[in-house]
Amino acid sequence: MTVSPLRWLCACGLWLILAVAQPLQAQPATIPADAATRLAEDGFSATEAAIGLIAASGAPHAVAALEAMADRRLLFWKDPARAIWRDAAGASFDLLTGEAVASPPAGASLVRVNNRLRGAIQAALGTLTLLSPDPQRRLRAAEAVLRSRDQAALADVETALARETVARVRVALLEARAALILTGTTADRPTREGAIATLVDVADTTALTVLRQVLPTADATLKPVIEAGIASIERTMAIRDVAQTVWFGLSLGSVLLLAAIGLAITFGVMGVINMAHGEMVMIGAYVTFVVQEVIRTHAPHLFDWSLPIAIPLAFVCAGAVGIAIERGIIRFLYGRPLETLLATFGVSLVLQQAIRTWFGPTNREVGAPSYMSGFFEVWGLQITYGRLWILVFTLVVFACLLLVLRATPLGLQMRAVTQNRRMASAMGIRTRFVDAMTFGLGSGIAGIAGVALSQIDNVSPNLGQSYIIDSFMVVVFGGVGNLWGTLVAAFTLGIANKVLEPFAGAVLGKILILILLILFIQKRPRGLFALKGRAVEQ
Amino acid sequence: MSLSRRHFLGTAAAGAASLAASRVSFAQGAPIKIGILHSLSGTMAISETTLKDVMLMLIEDQNRKGGVLGRRLEAVVADPASNWPLFAEKARELISRDQVSAVFGCWTSVSRKSVLPVFKELNNILFYPVQYEGEESERNVFYTGAAPNQQAIPAVDYLMSKDGGEAKRWVLAGTDYVYPRTTNKILEAYLLSKGVAPADIMINYTPFGHSDWQTIVADIKRFGSAGKKTAVVSTINGDANVPFYKELGNQGIKATDIPVVAFSVGEEELAGIDTKPLVGHLAAWNYFQSVKNPANEAFIKRWQEFTRNPRRVTNDPMEAHYIGFNMWVKAVEKAGTFDPDKVIDALPGITAPNLTGGVSEMLPNHHITKPVLIGEVRDDGQFDVVWQTSGLVPGDAWSKHLEGSKDLIGDWVTRKCGNFNTVTNRCGS
User: Fold this and answer.
1) pLDDT digits (tens, 9 = 90+) for A442-499
2) Minimum CA–CA partner of A350 in chain B
3) Which of A45, A92, A203, A452 has its CA 20 to 30 A from that of A353?
């Protein structure tokens, strides 16, 4: 084999160029000084230009600088134009060179960002971090590219896809690639069809958005394919909507059950119309707030434990208040429901105002521990951790309560007293003590409910009021005196509410539920699961 | 240097004398009473208690400056307990029994409507500090909060602009009562006039204190997936906001995808939420605590000192009371009397500095001129002002975008009429 001199020369030249280019590439690139000048102009359009310059510079510290800008950690000076960013620890770095700055001069202003710029930063970061070693970051990058549809990222997406091993990131990358192919102009027809198929497989709202967006401008032959794709995704989503409604209903039901479960004891088992029930829930929520405040100031590392710590404390506090109410007021009013209603309503106002005086009328911030925030996806359904844990927690509380009533001496005595007070008394049961304990148990459970509800609602003096009507509704619907009835009623009402809401709207939905409930009570005055026997008739 | 005892005593006496002199000596006569009609208990206490405190602070400061017309001011606080009929009763008590010269109060529109007949009958002054739905101009009421054209319309304009993200699809979400319903009616008419298709507007109402937002937030998400930039305009009131924003965060709706602009969420409301997931969502007001200028900084400092809480925040309705109170003081000085009837006539044309660096003026329709600011939520619960009107916007009592109200004007100076029809040239529509 002979090698022509020309070819040899060419190869040689290429090698030479590469050899020269290699060290040039290794030299860390800097961000052009123009970026600092644009930042110093302090206008949103100028800042957007600076973002473009930083992103295009290829400097290794561009990602850190852009992240700092999004987090409001990027500072600038006007004359001369200069910019530095601070990292999370507070150390300063020069924007242009990325070198650490020991003591930055005073007089800096913060680079202001708005939504448009934040979007631009995310898009730029997405393109820059597609090949990051951290899978979480790659996932975020893929999502950012999907959102920005930055055509320049297509090559990087292909590279990232080729080496991606994490399934979740791979799906996100595939979707991003499909979106880029479809919104771009270069791809041929089979590639586009493949992209449409990918999006139909993913079948989420973003996929639908992309398809709907490209439909008007697509060429006539591709239109039917896209339309079929949209129809297919819509079909999948319709089924998913049903599942989502059921989940939302279960979640709402669990909140209703949690709020009502204490009332099922005080009202359901004892027959006391306790209007101050909501305030027991509120006390539980405020106990959570106090626990978190103490933890924040004294032991911040225990923050994730704040809820488990608050649960027993809330039970004890609300239970103690409940026992005090029972001993101080309600025991004089047994058998007089109207007076009990008025007296406990008065108590509820007193408790609200007391909390308002001590803690102030404004909302108190109760934070969510790490395991309560965020969501995960199952088959395209978003399940938020907070809601899931509340559902699990509710079921656990319910099971415990059932166990207490069925398997403990106190539970036995409670049932005996409520079924036949005089007989129970004759058997040597201290009925007054049992009354107080029962009321305390119901109130304590309401307090526990408050711990969970503090995660999804306002912690304000009005917290209890919003749950009292719903709680009575659940207990009456389920059948007074029957825990299982309360469980079924809460989930039925929750799901019915969520089924009606999309059609009728939240306001009308609630009215419809109440009308249905009234009709139901007309037909079955004792609720879903009526107690039977002589005790009921008394 | 040694200080002789006599010298020391002399200095001390002189100091005491000068202290006594600097203490304001008030002219003869009983103090002038100012009524404060804000709920300190019940649902609205969450918002209104702050306004009671800010009024107490303003009155205290005015007394330090020598009162008004040489007379000391005295606050009379009434608690209408978030109970609308009680507002009317307490207003009557303040005016008839306590003989107040003016009342600063009310938050909800329904409470304002409930006290209105009392103020008309007994001819007294009400300063109303909250943004409201408009469509009203009464001789006895001075509206220092924003009318829809000073809050809602500019906010929508911003979202339509390039900086705001050029929104093409709109969700109007509100609590089911008069303010959101009227505001949304105005906004819908405005959006349609701007060429937005009816299919691109989704209107949703929820009951007071709504706490389960899962379905609605999921609906908003779906509505936003039509391939057009979507924005949410929220007139959700009070307590329902916290679970709404929590759910937005939970379902991962970011401000860069679907921004939410709120008209009832300020620094005070955000104090109860972790704002990290909300960064970038918007609020439209005429004042933000984060506005940088000396008057505002002094006000914040004084407020935190007054409440003995260095973390207390300020908000828009507080600024409205600040402006309203200073206008009342100037009007009394101009009229030379505390007689409400004379002060009412003196008020239009009065100017008072606001806390955003401008000077607000009381207009003949009893609304004031204000700047409109759009703020983005920061992770520390404050707002970054991202846009503001170039000048002050005069408040319209009657919306220009609604049939039946666009021909009306309020003019208590020349026409002595709150709803003068400029087409038929008659008072009373």
Assistant:
1) 999 999 999 999 988 888 888 888 889 889 989 889 887 788 999 999 999 999 999 9
2) B41
3) A452
* Domain covering B32-146+293-370: architecture: 3-Layer(aba) Sandwich (3.40)
Contact with chain A for residue B225, Cβ under 8 A: yes
* Confidence grade of residue A5 (pLDDT, cut at 50, 70, 90): low
Residues of B in Cβ contact (< 8 Å) with A501: 215-216
- Burial of A92 by CB count in 10 Å (0-12 exposed, 13-18 middle, 19+ buried)? middle
Amino acid identity at A346:
G
b/e map B292-306, b = 16+ CB within 10 Å? eeeebeebbeebeeb
The pLDDT of residue A537 is 47
Is domain B150-291+374-394 given the CATH code 3.40.50.2300 in the classification? yes
Q: Which residue has the tokens 């960002």?
A: A113
Distance from CA of A375 to the nearest CA of B (A): 7
Using CB atoms, pick whichever of B43, B251, B280 lies closest to residue A382: B251
Within an 8 Å CB–CB cutoff, is residue A461 touching chain B?
yes
pLDDT > 90: percent of chain A: 24
Residue B229, chain A, CB below 8 Å: the answer is no
3-state secondary structure of A283: helix
pLDDT at B73: 95
For chain B, residues classed under CATH 3.40.50.2300 are 32-146+293-370, 150-291+374-394
Per-residue tokens: B341: 């009837």
Lowest-confidence region among A194-198, A344-348, A372-376:
A372-376
Q: How close B308 gets to chain A, by Cα (Å)?
A: 13
- Are A248 and B252 within 8 A, CB to CB? no
Q: Can you tell me the distance from the alpha carbon of B327 to that of B305, in angstroms, rounded to the nearest whole number?
A: 24
Three-state secondary structure string covering A157-212: HHHHHHHCCCHHHHHHHHHHHHHHHHHCCCCCHHHHHHHHHHHHHHCCHHHHHHHH
Q: In one letter, which amino acid is B188?
A: E
Angle between helices A277-298 and A431-453 (to 10 degrees): 60
